[in-house]
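User: Please predict the structure of the protein below. I'd like the answer in C-alpha cell form so I can feed it into my own downstream comparison script.

Assistant: Understood. Taking the following sequence of 239 residues as input:
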Amino acid sequence: MWFDAAGFTQKAPSKQANQDRVLIQDCLLESGVTCAPKMAACRCFVADGIGGTRAAEIASAFVLEQIRERLVVPPPDGGAGLRALFEAINADLIARTAPDPATSGAGTTLVGLLHWQDGFRIVNAGDSEAWMMREDRFFRLSERQSLRDMQDDSPVTSYFGGPESELDLCMDTSLREVLPGDIVLLCSDGLFKALAVDQVRAVLRNSRNLAEKAEFLCASVAKQDAPDDTSCILVQAVA
C-alpha cells in the first residue's frame, strides 16, 4: 500500500499572518496548496499556533521543523519512544522561546498521521482534528482537547509550548488499520469554522482526484471569509 497526500494552509482575511503550518513528508508549507503522490510511508502534520501573536507562528513552525528533522524513521521502542520524542520537542520549544518576553509562552496544537510498514499512529494535542472517510462514512478519529469539546474558541487543554503538564499527547484511536480507499483528513479548527461537516464530506465523496479536492476545499474556505487561519491535509491509502 502507498499513499497520496494533498494539503493547504491559508490565513484568515482578518489576520496579518498565517499562524498555521502544514508538514507533508519533507515539505513544510506556510501558504498555498501542495501535493505528494505515491508515498511509501506517511508523515503528515498540521500545527495551529496559539495566541494570536508572532509567537504563535514561531511555535507551529518550530514544532513541524523538529518533526521533519527528528522523526525520519520509527522510534525503536514504539509508542514510548514516539512520546518521548514529542516531549523533547516540547522542551526544546520552551527553552528556545522562554528567554524572550516577545515569544515566551509560544504554543501550538498538533495533529498528525504517521504510517510505516509496521502500522500507523494518529497523534493529537489540542483542538486540531483527524477525520476518516471510509466508503460512505465520515467520522472523527481524534478527540478535541479543549474545555468544551464542540464549542468554537474553547481554551485548549493540551498543547506544545506550555508547562510540561500542558502537553497531554493523545495517540489512542479505536481505528486499528488504514484500508485502501480510506481518506484521512487532518485539519486545524479553522476548517469546520468555515465549512459544515456535510460540506466537507460531499467534497471527499466526489470523483475529483485528491489534489483537486484539496484545492476545492481551499477555495471554498476562502469564499466563506473564514474567521480563522485554515489548514487541511488529505491522505488517501491506495492499493
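That's the full C-alpha cell string. The chain has one domain: 2-238.
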